[in-house]
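Entry 14. Ran structure prediction on the chain below.
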Amino acid sequence: MPPRSTARVSIDPIPVAVGGLFGCFVGSFLNVVVHRLPRNESIVHPPSRCYACGTQVRWHDNLPVVGWLILRGRCRHCQAPFSFRYPLIEAACGLATALAVHLAVNQVGGPGYGWWGGSAWLHAARLPDLFLIGIALAVMLGLLWWIAASALIDLDHSIIPDELTKPLQLAAPFLAVLGNNLAIGWIPEGWWYSKDELGEFSLHPGGFLGLSLGLIGLGVGLVLVAVPLARRTFTTCVPQPMRWQEEHHRSYRLGSHWFLATLILPVITLVVVVVLTPALHGLSAAEFRRLLPSTYPLGIQLCLAILGGLAGWLVPQAVSLLGTMVFRKEAMGFGDVKFLAPLGCFLGPVGVVWTFGLAAVAGTLVGVPLLLLRRRFEVPFGPFLAVGAVLTLVLVPWLQRLLP
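Output, structure tokens:
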């Protein structure tokens, strides 16, 4: 782990301001996505318009935050109110983007800290640090914007559209290795190398690959077993009005098969990466350190991404099935499963557990006051998973540095 930085962090106003402004425009686009995607409308056409009178919003009235303030939150033509959530989301995205740019540019926490330093295997290619930081920052910002859009749609409609989850399930294992994998500190070192009493290193690519494929195979088997188990659970453990129809079972089965299909290419890539790593023995410390930034960390990050995706699928799936059996009603929607699976690629298996735990705490903090106030207000679990994921992404680097 990199040593704790003691240098004073300064704020470079130009990249932070540019990042904040860009984030506001992204927030404006997210408002469009959140409103139109659940309604099966195009997110690019027609241009923004007033939904009361249908008048197209002028470009200068559509500027993030500023346009809403100039119009005082009302349509210029019919005076219909525009939701205050629009500028709020734009401002929040701007602030979050500006903060992320600040952390990346200043390498807060030290070089390689969190996501900002880029992947070790990319460093081995001797690419410019600014390029590596830019890649990692772009991936992280894209992930945060995706989380925000998914959580807001779930909050409004109690669904997370497949148009958001399925593409990321396909791309997540590969995007996850472009940053400094946050879960890398939790993999047992003896899994892939050993060091003798004289300090000489030996790599174990065969053992690493065998254990990796064994754990992946176990996760795949559990996903397949859950399909018939879900059919039995949602047809016998819930009252008649809540029982799944055949289209629900079909959607569940196809969703599970799609998720497993997205793992095929990452697993093949993992095997190729590890096989191409020579089974060297008796490496000196200098040779071992020279080898580390290339193939093995890429293999480890891919392995953690795949296992994290499986954990992100299986943890909410297990909670859903067990909760349904115990409480005799659907405990968690399938959208939450599809939401957490791609996030698991970035969080790693342990990060998934942290995310789910923090989401449960956040849900309790919201639900208990509503219960005490006797307010019947059902909140979907997706937004709480989003909160848990963001907190985990922020907290994991600190947790790793506390580990021996």
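The beta strands are 193-195, 201-203. Will compare against last week's run tomorrow.
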